[in-house]
Amino acid sequence: MGSVWKNSRVMKLFAIQTPIVQAGMVYVSGGKLAAAAANSGALGLIGAGSFKPAELHDQIIKAKSLTNAPFGVNLPLLYHGVEEQIDIALKQGVRIFFTSAGSPKKYTGFLKDKGCVVVHVTSSPELAKKCEEAGVDAVVAEGFEAGGHNGRDEITTMVLIPQVVDTVKIPVIAAGGIGDGRGILAAMALGASGVQIGSRYAATVESSAHDNFKNAIVKAGPGDTMLAMKGLVPVRLLKNKFYHDIAKLELSGADNEIIKAHLGKGRARQGMLGGDLIEGELEIGQVSGMIKSVLTCQELMNCFVDEYQKARERI
Amino acid sequence: MGSVWKNSRVMKLFAIQTPIVQAGMVYVSGGKLAAAAANSGALGLIGAGSFKPAELHDQIIKAKSLTNAPFGVNLPLLYHGVEEQIDIALKQGVRIFFTSAGSPKKYTGFLKDKGCVVVHVTSSPELAKKCEEAGVDAVVAEGFEAGGHNGRDEITTMVLIPQVVDTVKIPVIAAGGIGDGRGILAAMALGASGVQIGSRYAATVESSAHDNFKNAIVKAGPGDTMLAMKGLVPVRLLKNKFYHDIAKLELSGADNEIIKAHLGKGRARQGMLGGDLIEGELEIGQVSGMIKSVLTCQELMNCFVDEYQKARERI
What we know:
The structure is a homodimer. Chain A has helices spanning 9-14, 31-39, 53-66, 82-91, 108-113, 125-133, 157-167, 181-189, 199-202, 211-219, 241-251, 256-263, 267-273, 297-314, and strands at 20-22, 44-47, 71-76, 96-100, 117-122, 138-142, 148-149, 172-175, 194-197, 225-228, 235-238. The first copy, chain A, is α/β, with parallel strands linked by helices. In chain A, strand 5 (117-122), helix 6 and strand 6 (138-142) form a beta-alpha-beta unit.
């Protein structure tokens, strides 16, 4: 494997064997997925967003029991209990933190002082610059095609990556729309030194997504996701009844309070973990249109290596 | 130059020296731009959409007077007078046609019978398949980040290209978000055998866009375009007063008739050709955020070659 991947700054930063990061995702990436991704040579991330502090503790313990490879924690800063989560992760020896959905200034200094590697997720070159100034070690630059929460400027991966690469000196990890080895190579061509892959890992054996949701990802066609709730926090969803109801409200000019009331609570858990494909919120990327199977993390890595190698030979 | 570009199916198809197509664009790409692009080794295209038949005739004559290299005509099928335009182009010896915004079945057979190379523009794998069945020689697969008229599914270049490549056997020309050599290489990594570049050519010396518009492209930042008029025909615009007025109407839930009335007639001409940056419609791609200069087509080609080579060495 060492012969396929050119040693990149991202590989050195995390001491991993490939330039691939498995994205931390709510309801999808617990300790089992992070460990399996790590064992295959990627950087595994536990998505802390959907875990209460005690649950996060258990997921870290689980990951440690399943792998000796490095893994990290993704912390969306918009949830309550972030500081407790950080405290638990540090106590359990986690030293890799991906932060998102908040200011990179908030915890970067604190985490760096504890000897951590800190990465912040950005959807624009301007925010990437702020991340660099806040002292992060790398940025994830995430395009419009990505699943889940998304930037307001709707900048796609193709145009975002080169602009972020031209703006900062720290390594850039490309995210959004990457689901196979061709996408990994394309991201590298654009100047990234690593990639973060989410949706493709949601449809793995080790993902904690409900089987219904995994099957829905596999069945999804190219145009089956859309960015919704642009007035609140934009989020890319699989087009199910829940999505269409929200879209109809938005098209009618309904204000945010009405949309919030319809949204209610716990819809993402209901869909992604509970498997309710009708009334649940199914956060997933556009790349779901090209995901055709549920694989183990190791099988997936074998595909990435093979596809990347073939694409590189072609160009 | 022959040593940089791997001879691709697209280069063979058009008998050109590079895998680059200069997009046919309304009010931007007349005979002067098409000829200059052709002289630099790209395939030049005259954008017929904004020309009356007699004007198209003059633009073809102009292009022929400026180059001996092959060039073609782009025909958006949604305008009146398309058949007259085809007739004029054929009589002037044009044998390369790019068609868009209509059914590929309509003219492909007729043009193929006249010995033409026919390419149709698509924004989804499904339509790409229909194009192939209609007998076209290649497809342009154009992503959400592209300027001007755009697909309803909002599929980005990063995820569109591999899916189209996996769907059809004919060559795929990637478009949308490509503005430098890194983007060209990324498109090739995704499986394309050529690229179509629009916005970057709009800001060339030989483009017929108004200088005000060219300067606005150079000044545009990463998040300065947005897809608008989704209820009519979605179009990507630079965010000026005209755009904000339309966006406000859309957000309020205004129906299409109200938006049409506000839109009025001739707004694209007013903006792109007339230079009215306030009330004019300025169609441009997201990649405008990374365009920092107005260059000649030959200078631009030199940049593409240099950037492509450097990116390929890097990976």
